[in-house]
């Protein structure tokens, strides 16, 4: 049979039947609106006649956004995908108005003529139908300051300055903790500001972690560095070294009749002149017992507390020196002389009148 070339209408292609001796033009779903007529070599009469197919002229009266199909010689108009209407009038369908057009909940739906577009929102990645959260913190700390913590959130991230810093998270400045209450350090500690924190160090003479500092008793070790003959007295954060004058209190424990003399590491006690003993106990010396106490041989030695008195004795002062009442007593060195008065005779110890 002689074959002739015919044209199927726009949007249709030839499909042979199972026996291969016939067929029909069927809708081509893969053709675009701007494709030209597809020519096919089919038996004459199988393709619609160009002059008799109403769809070939002005799309059969269908809307420009509709497909025209001849069914049993009659025109059928069907709005294409993305449009709605009766085929003669086709209006763009806003797919975004229903269920976000099928886009992801994390995407924006943008309507276009006959179609729509899905785009993932900022902070998400994907094809618009499926969108996954972007962890901004994985790159450059999410744009946060180097001294801030980046926390990923749905579609975004939060920036918060770390402890010891202040700011909005994008710019963080160091806080000088030492300016308030010594930074929480002990009153006997030095607060040193550091980047993002502070250190506490106990002052010399104190021990601890800086938050709590306790006074060190330096005197417990090597007498606090004082001389071996000095007394170490602990003070807050330090110690005092002082030589002790034991004599200042209760005469240093010496006897009342002794002299206390301060010495390195102690004191000495020495009995006063006229006393004998070890200084802690002192007894009066009776100087008169030895060599008349140093008095003249013709003097009387009288012991006194811590000393003695030497006195020449005038025997005449007592009972006229033993002379007679009618005699004159004259004191002499170590003795006395008795001489009868005028008108009397005798040895002075006994005197009688010359004239009865």
UniProtKB/TrEMBL annotation:
<keyword id="KW-0732">Signal</keyword>
<dbReference type="InterPro" id="IPR002172">
    <property type="entry name" value="LDrepeatLR_classA_rpt"/>
</dbReference>
<dbReference type="InterPro" id="IPR000152">
    <property type="entry name" value="EGF-type_Asp/Asn_hydroxyl_site"/>
</dbReference>
<dbReference type="Pfam" id="PF07645">
    <property type="entry name" value="EGF_CA"/>
</dbReference>
<feature type="domain" description="EGF-like">
    <location>
        <begin position="243"/>
        <end position="283"/>
    </location>
</feature>
<keyword id="KW-0677">Repeat</keyword>
<dbReference type="GO" id="GO:0005509">
    <property type="term" value="F:calcium ion binding"/>
</dbReference>
<keyword id="KW-0245">EGF-like domain</keyword>
<feature type="domain" description="EGF-like">
    <location>
        <begin position="133"/>
        <end position="173"/>
    </location>
</feature>
<dbReference type="GO" id="GO:0005615">
    <property type="term" value="C:extracellular space"/>
</dbReference>
<keyword id="KW-1015">Disulfide bond</keyword>
<dbReference type="GO" id="GO:0008201">
    <property type="term" value="F:heparin binding"/>
</dbReference>
<dbReference type="InterPro" id="IPR051586">
    <property type="entry name" value="PKC-binding_NELL"/>
</dbReference>
<dbReference type="InterPro" id="IPR001881">
    <property type="entry name" value="EGF-like_Ca-bd_dom"/>
</dbReference>
<protein>
    <submittedName>
        <fullName>Thrombospondin II</fullName>
    </submittedName>
</protein>
<dbReference type="InterPro" id="IPR018097">
    <property type="entry name" value="EGF_Ca-bd_CS"/>
</dbReference>
<feature type="domain" description="EGF-like">
    <location>
        <begin position="51"/>
        <end position="91"/>
    </location>
</feature>
<feature type="domain" description="EGF-like">
    <location>
        <begin position="174"/>
        <end position="214"/>
    </location>
</feature>
<dbReference type="InterPro" id="IPR049883">
    <property type="entry name" value="NOTCH1_EGF-like"/>
</dbReference>
<dbReference type="InterPro" id="IPR024731">
    <property type="entry name" value="NELL2-like_EGF"/>
</dbReference>
<keyword id="KW-0325">Glycoprotein</keyword>
<feature type="domain" description="EGF-like">
    <location>
        <begin position="312"/>
        <end position="352"/>
    </location>
</feature>
<dbReference type="InterPro" id="IPR000742">
    <property type="entry name" value="EGF"/>
</dbReference>
<feature type="domain" description="EGF-like">
    <location>
        <begin position="92"/>
        <end position="132"/>
    </location>
</feature>
<dbReference type="Pfam" id="PF12947">
    <property type="entry name" value="EGF_3"/>
</dbReference>
């Amino acid at each position: 049979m002689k074959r002739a070339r015919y044209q199927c209408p726009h949007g249709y292609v030839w499909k042979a039947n199972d026996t291969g001796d016939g067929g029909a033009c069927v809708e081509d779903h893969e053709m675009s609106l701007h494709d030209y007529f597809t020519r096919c070599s089919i038996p004459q009469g199988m393709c619609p006649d160009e002059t008799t197919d109403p769809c070939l002229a002005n799309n059969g009266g269908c809307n420009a956004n509709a497909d025209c199909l001849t069914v049993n010689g009659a025109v059928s108009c069907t709005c294409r995908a993305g449009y709605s209407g009766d085929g003669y009038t086709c209006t763009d369908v806003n797919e975004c108005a229903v269920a976000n057009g099928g886009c992801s909940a994390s995407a924006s739906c943008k309507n276009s003529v006959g179609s729509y577009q899905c785009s993932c929102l900022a902070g998400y990645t994907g094809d618009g139908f499926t969108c996954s959260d972007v962890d901004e913190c994985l790159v450059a700390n999410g744009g946060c300051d180097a001294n801030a913590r980046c926390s990923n959130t749905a579609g975004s991230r939060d920036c918060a300055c770390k402890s010891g810093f202040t700011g909005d998270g994008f710019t963080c400045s160091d806080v000088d903790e030492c300016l308030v209450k010594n930074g929480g350090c002990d009153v006997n500690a030095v607060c040193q500001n550091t980047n993002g924190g502070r250190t506490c160090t106990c002052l010399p003479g104190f021990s601890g972690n800086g938050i709590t500092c306790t006074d060190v008793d330096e005197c417990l070790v090597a007498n606090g560095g004082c001389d071996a003959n000095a007394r170490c007295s602990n003070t807050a954060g330090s110690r005092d070294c002082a030589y002790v004058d034991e004599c200042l209190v209760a005469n240093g424990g010496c006897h009342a009749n002794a002299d206390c003399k301060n010495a390195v590491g102690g004191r000495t006690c020495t009995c006063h002149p006229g006393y004998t003993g070890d200084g802690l106990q002192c007894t009066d010396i009776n100087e008169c017992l030895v060599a008349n106490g140093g008095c003249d041989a013709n003097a009387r030695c009288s012991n006194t507390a811590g000393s003695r008195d030497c006195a020449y004795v005038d025997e005449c002062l007592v009972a006229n020196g033993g002379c007679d009442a009618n005699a004159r007593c004259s004191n002499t060195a170590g003795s006395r002389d008795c001489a009868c008065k005028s008108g009397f005779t005798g040895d002075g110890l006994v005197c009688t009148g010359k004239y009865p």
